Design the sequence.
């Protein structure tokens, strides 16, 4: 599909234009990039069928951008984009992956120091050249070096939420071939780890070689790492690797169990198997006594042979799950369809894309029965954050939407900012009028641990604050979590009856799995929210649920699995 190539180009064009302060256009290009990325149909097909008129019907695509798409489909390039690249031949993705380096900084760094990529950037920073630039300074230079280190440490791993659509696509592709029977993604993806190193796909087939040839013919790849009669390993056009393995049907359960991992879980399982007189490998489960293979068609067979009940993939990290099922207590974790509400939703009243009504309709379509509108407040001025007056106006609009809507309830909320001293940027009298208040830290991320912890706990002590949003502030691969005593926060949340958020946004996943586990063990209640900024974002809820599952959360640990009336009783007032 050309959709993704075009999306990438438009997001680069947005950056190039933002460098020169061109008004409105960057947002238009960004919108087009997003539209193309989430478009199910190939633009090429749309163009063939309906020409430019068809392209212009894609939401977010106007005349100008449709022209670019047409040019690209006809000639393989877009002259405007080539011109920009020629003027500033930099690796935009690499440079902007560093926290704090935006389009403006990229332009400055190129003009003054000819910095084109991460390597140049690091060299210049280490040589102390960046601190000498106007508007940069020693502190920025230090932050850039820290940012580079983080990018390096996480390089080669992909965010679960970013890789998910691709895995679905490849799985579907294989499934649709006449050579495949079962197709299942395994590895860290199946365990729903927050980042994934490579994609492992397993299949059964009567004709393994044919399936592998089919895969190689259909998938655009840059490199083949290795190829055999039942296995192939490639680097795809997008830069990530896929291992495809074709396994025999009779032992598929053993193969799936093995290649789902984790390695640590498998080691523990094999040790246990030996004690019980079995050898477990990717090829099957064998009895030492008879030398014979026992049933291992499914994973249930494999675990069953060892006297264990099935263990969900998200739990397979050797963090006590095997011991737990040995005691006969397999953890009953939250299921993917159990959320009834979403408590963090932004709209076009601030930095979201869609209206309150559009978000409500989409939430309903996704099976939710309530959402809270939580637009930003005053201190986040760049988002057009609400003050008390704007909040009142928005509440009136929510009343109107609720009157028209059926099957979904819109709650009045806000995402208020926690100031340095733990007070909030909206007066209590205004907060008292809202149904749900979420509070978050959006500034001064580098406070010392003690101060940060006290700041957050003070905010949770506010009788109007119902939820602590994205409790550690991390952006995966981009910003470290702030220093905070998580045990103390979890304890305070329980004492003050503040819900802790599991923010499902792919870059956040905050709380993360291990912190969720701590909260669950402490009996502190959670909510899983999308942090949606546009309609399409409700789908990210599954990543939050996945992390909650990895943190052993049961449905009863998560307040928004409750129907609305019961959920409201969980709140402070
Ligand atoms: P990743 O790709 O780094 O996100 O993590 P995984 O868990 O997908 O690891 P990967 O792709 O290297 O291997 C897939 C699975 O295969 C892994 O979860 C467990 C199994 N596996 C691979 N190598 C070994 C090994 O040396 N020993 C054992 N016991 N299992 C292995
Ligand atoms: Ca893998
Ligand atoms: Ca692999
Ligand atoms: Zn926030």
Sequence:
């Amino acid at each position: 599909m050309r959709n993704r190539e075009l999306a990438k180009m438009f997001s680069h064009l947005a950056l190039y234009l933002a460098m020169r302060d061109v008004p409105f256009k960057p947002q238009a290009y960004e919108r087009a990039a997003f539209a193309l990325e989430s478009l199910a149909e190939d633009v090429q097909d749309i163009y063939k069928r309906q020409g430019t008129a068809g392209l212009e019907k894609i939401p977010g695509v106007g005349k100008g951008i449709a022209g670019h798409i047409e040019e690209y489909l006809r000639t393989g390039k877009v002259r405007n984009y080539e011109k920009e690249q020629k003027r500033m031949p930099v690796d935009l993705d690499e440079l902007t992956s560093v926290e704090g380096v935006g389009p403006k900084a990229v332009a400055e760094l190129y003009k003054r120091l000819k910095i084109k990529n991460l390597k140049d950037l690091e060299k210049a920073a280490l040589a102390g050249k960046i601190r000498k630039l106007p508007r940069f300074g020693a502190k920025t230079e230090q932050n850039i070096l820290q940012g580079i280190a983080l990018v390096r440490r996480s390089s080669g791993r992909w965010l679960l939420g970013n890789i998910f659509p691709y895995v679905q696509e490849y799985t579907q592709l294989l499934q649709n071939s006449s050579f495949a029977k079962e197709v299942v993604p395994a590895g860290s993806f199946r365990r729903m780890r927050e980042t994934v190193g490579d994609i492992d796909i397993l299949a059964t087939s009567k004709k393994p070689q044919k399936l592998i040839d089919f895969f190689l013919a259909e998938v655009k790849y840059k490199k083949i790492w290795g190829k055999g009669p039942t296995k192939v390993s490639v680097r795809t056009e997008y830069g990530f690797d896929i291992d495809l393995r074709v396994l025999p049907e009779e032992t598929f359960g053993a193969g799936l169990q093995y290649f789902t991992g984790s390695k640590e879980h498998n080691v523990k399982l094999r040790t246990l198997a030996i004690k019980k007189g079995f050898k477990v490998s990717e090829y099957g489960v064998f009895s030492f006594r008879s030398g014979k293979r026992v049933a291992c068609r499914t994973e249930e067979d494999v675990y069953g042979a060892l006297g264990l009940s099935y263990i969900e993939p998200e739990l397979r990290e050797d963090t006590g799950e095997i011991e737990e099922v040995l005691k006969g207590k397999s953890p009953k974790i939250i299921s993917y369809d159990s959320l009834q509400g979403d408590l963090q939703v932004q709209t076009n009243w601030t930095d979201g894309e869609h209206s309150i009504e559009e978000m409500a309709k989409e939430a309903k379509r996704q099976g939710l029965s309530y959402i809270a509108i939580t637009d930003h407040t005053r201190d986040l001025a760049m988002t057009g954050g609400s003050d008390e007056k704007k909040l009142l106006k928005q509440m009136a609009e929510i009343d109107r939407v609720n009157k028209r809507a059926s099957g979904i309830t819109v709650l009045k909320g806000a995402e208020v900012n926690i100031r340095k001293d733990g007070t909030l940027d909206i007066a209590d009298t205004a907060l008292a009028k809202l149904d749900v208040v979420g509070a978050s830290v959006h500034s001064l991320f580098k406070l010392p641990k003690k101060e940060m912890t006290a700041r957050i706990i003070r905010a949770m002590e506010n009788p109007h604050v119902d939820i602590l949003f994205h409790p550690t502030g991390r952006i995966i691969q981009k910003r470290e979590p702030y220093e905070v005593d998580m045990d103390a926060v979890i304890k305070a949340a329980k004492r003050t009856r503040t819900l802790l958020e599991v923010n499902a946004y792919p870059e956040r996943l905050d709380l993360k799995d291990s912190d969720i586990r701590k909260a669950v063990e402490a009996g502190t209640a959670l909510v899983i929210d999308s942090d949606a900024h546009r309609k399409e974002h409700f789908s990210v809820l599954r990543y939050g649920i996945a992390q909650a599952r990895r943190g052993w959360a049961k449905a009863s640990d998560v307040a928004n699995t409750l129907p609305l009336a019961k959920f409201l009783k969980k709140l402070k007032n």
User: Anything to note?
Assistant: The domain at 252-326 is CATH 3.30.210.10 (Beta Polymerase; domain 3).
